[in-house]
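User: I'm curious whether this sequence folds into something compact or stays loose and floppy. Could you predict its structure so I can see for myself?
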Amino acid sequence: MSCEPEIIFEDEHLLTAYKPEGWLVHRSEIDRHETRILLQYLRDLSGSHLYPVHRLDKPTSGIIIFGKSSEVASRLQQQLESEYSLKNYLAVCRGYCPEQETIDYPLPPVADFKHQRKRAKSELPRQEAITLFRRLATVELPYAVDRYPTSRYSLVEIQLKTGRRHQIRRHFKHIQHPLIGCPKYGKSSHNRFFSQQFDCRRLLLHAVGLEIKHPVSGKLLALRAKPRGEYKKLLDILGWTNTLNHWNSSV
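Assistant: Here's the prediction. I'll summarize afterward.
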């Protein structure tokens, strides 16, 4: 149940769009054979030259913003790196996570290239990484995925205070509530269960909201992008759609 990218908001200075899972934001040597490139797709769709401001990982879906000039992109990037912007995500994790918590756990850089992997992890400098989250809903399913007769999962609202690579996935692994559908930091038994039981094979991480001041007018932009495709279908199956609708109306 794949989705196409869609423009959410556009003016003469910037463009925001929905990024489906499985799309790269821009071309990368790490995944050189991928042909679904969001930047090129939106340039063709809008007829405008676009400058990347931030990135969503390939398996993550949701809202993303581009500048239409290097100056606007730079202003937006500075905002996103400050405490004055809000970046909200929705995720599904294993177990009943705490109702509310701040994860303040420094992370070393992710080693994508061979020359970076030659250094021991202990030698890599750790960077400040802060993630806030709040549990929105839980479910207990009558399936024995691990050693227990039932399996528990949580729907979580997440707010990033810093933007380290794979920060959310790494932080939730650190607190022993790994995200569903993550092959690198998740748990394979639960990933297989969601694939086989619900036909859901994607990472359950979605950038649902972004609040930022317009870099030219100064007007507050409160942008939203609800989950689509497999993610939305899963929310319906688990009975979380009403919870999400109520949450959407309150933020």
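Summary: The longest strand covers residues 130-141. Confidence is low (pLDDT under 50) at residues 113-117.
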